[in-house]
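job 3f2a | input accepted
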Amino acid sequence: MFAAWGRLVYRRRRWVALLAVLVAAMAIAYASQARVILNSGGWLIEGSESASVTERLTREFDAGGSSLVIVYTSEQGDAASPAVQDAVASSLSRLADDPVVNEVIGYSQSGGDPRFISRDGRSTYVVAQLDTTEEGSIDQVEHLRSLIQPQSGLSYRLTGYGPLALAVNEQSEADLQRAELVSLPLALLILVLVFASLAAAVMPLLVAGLAIPTALALVYLLAQQIEMSIYVVNVATMLGLALAIDYSLFLVSRFREELAKGRPVGDAVETAMGTAGKAITFSGLAVAIGLLSLLFFESSALSSIGIGGSLVVVASLAFALTFLPAVLGMLGGRVNALSLGGGFNVLRGRLGMAPPEGGTRHGRWERVAHWVMRRPILVLVPTLILLLAAGTPFLRLNQAVPDASVLPAGLEARDAYIALQRDFPGGDLTPFTILAELEGEPTSLASIGAVIAYGERLDALPEIESVESPFRHPLLVQPASGEPLPAEQVAQLFAAPGAALPPAQQRLRAYLETYISGSTVRLEAQTRLHPVEPAALALTQQLRDVEVEAGMEAQVGGYIASSHDSLSSMRARTPWAVALTMVVVAIVLYLLFGSVVLPVKAVFMSLLSLTASFGALVWIFQEGNLAGLLSFEPLGYTVAGIPVIMFAVLFGLSMDYEVLLLSRVQEAYRRTGDNTASVAEGLARTAAVITGAAAIMITVFAAFSLADNITIKAIGVGMAIAVFLDATIIRVLLVPATMRLMGRWNWWAPGVLGRLADRVGFSHVETTDALADDPGARTTEPEPTRG
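job 3f2a | predicted structure (787 res):
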């Protein structure tokens, strides 16, 4: 099948190459627009209680839309003074009149609510409620900024969804450009070390240059229909660089190897496609399956990364299996043009990136394999202990949905957000929002008493600092004592005709009525806990468990509740996503190798490398080790979603080298029937290309460690560590040791499964002249072990 495809591509090589280039050229226009249409959210779980609260706030209170927060700092030091408040009003006069602004609420508009003044008295903030969605607010930020009029002695900063989303977008793009600037030259250097030829080294980069824009164009088109995360661009580019280069590296290496044996160009293309082409196809299928496991999760931020990652896998495979063999067919022996030799080859050999000289199989890597297989238990046990020990920090995992703190200090929107959390009382940006549905009139004495009683039970929870409602508010106090007004007096305030009230009380009642809509009353519960602390997330369920009054129904929402619902959904679905991914990938490997043992071993090896990299993730980014070296401020938690994203990507990627290595081992075993010699030969034959491929992948992933956004930095570092472990400890030590211990049982399948694999699988050798590799090879293939 794959060899036949190679013959077809070779015969139509000029047309295939031209068509591939045209497709990529058309994709560039769409790819450049991809980032604009993506969003920074995606953590709200549809159907959850917190999502219901958000939807009701929009529908019933006209408060679920976006808002712009302006934080003012006064040089005079008294932000509550009439002079400063007058300056704030003058600054916002044009903004308040803009059609997109529904309402402006601050210290003056709320009747002197102390929450709008910072603890040191120097700062105040104002919330502009916008008549647009959160995503729509992004496009309004600069327009609204232009309406704010500077005032002498008063500085301001903007935050809220729109400014923060802009900051994330700009930071994401800057991080991506920095990573590409570092990784591409290093990748080219590694390719030159592997091939010792500039012409061959450029081939994988050409494939990456075609695959990434095509994948991003597909992301752009798909984002027209579904919500997709801004991080899709970074993850897709990261994967596209690594996979397109890796797959091309495998194929070009096999093509050059076949040319070196004296094969005609057409036969070399056919053989390369029948062997390396088949291996990269199944490897890509494993990666795509891992990424598609993210579709199990209800969060669009996660599912969109799975979709985007799968698209880049498909694009990388498509160009590697079409454009690349077509160009190789046109180049022929010229693929070795601009070769480098002499001392350069000595360097390649020392780095393990040069194939065995003279076509022999005896080299450093084969000696290592034989050394391991002579003492498999001695190698296996300490290595397993080391990997499991490295994974123990993962037992201390504490996940949280990220806030603005993942962005680097110095960004206006981030710093203003942190200031609101740190300097103002109550943590006003992240309260719990509780919607209480009442049977009677909300402002009747009975309803007011019921809401006050319910609020007091909420307030009795140890971690709740205060509960505010239209009937229990910092402004509803006795003038002399400061004690809360009794229910009767509150009822009188709402019952009195508006015109009969003094102007101050008219403003107060108008402000408090924003907490009431129909038969629903809105309460806000402030906590002293940081929104990402486990205790704060657990507080969500405690609030939901509080007993409500007779005839009342309540729902708890807000940022913390939304994070709780997102994490709960993620935890519930992770076991299913992991289990199904492992089963499906194992089936794919069974069809490739015709064995039920090798897939189980491959899954187990992948889990070992993942365990160690997860441990490193927690040890570094949650606990803050190496923070100085990697230039980040520890969060004290692991960004939610990173472990499942890493699993989805790395479980498939770990099969990359496994498939390539075992494919060469299987070729040798079918010729010789000698398990030990076949493992050594497979390792020696693939050592240079796997070393080079791993070095490229590590370089690409590690380049994202330069990102200032901690989410991207953590993904890059975690994946670089996992690939390093997989290409070194797993490939060099564990694979030879385990295959030596299992012997001929490596290729075992029970009777029914064995016959099924022979009938519908892909474990057969597609090249009829593989025996030319070894003059002393067997003339018949050994029978696979069938039970």
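job 3f2a | Residues 357-362, 765-781 have pLDDT under 50 and may be disordered.
job 3f2a | closed
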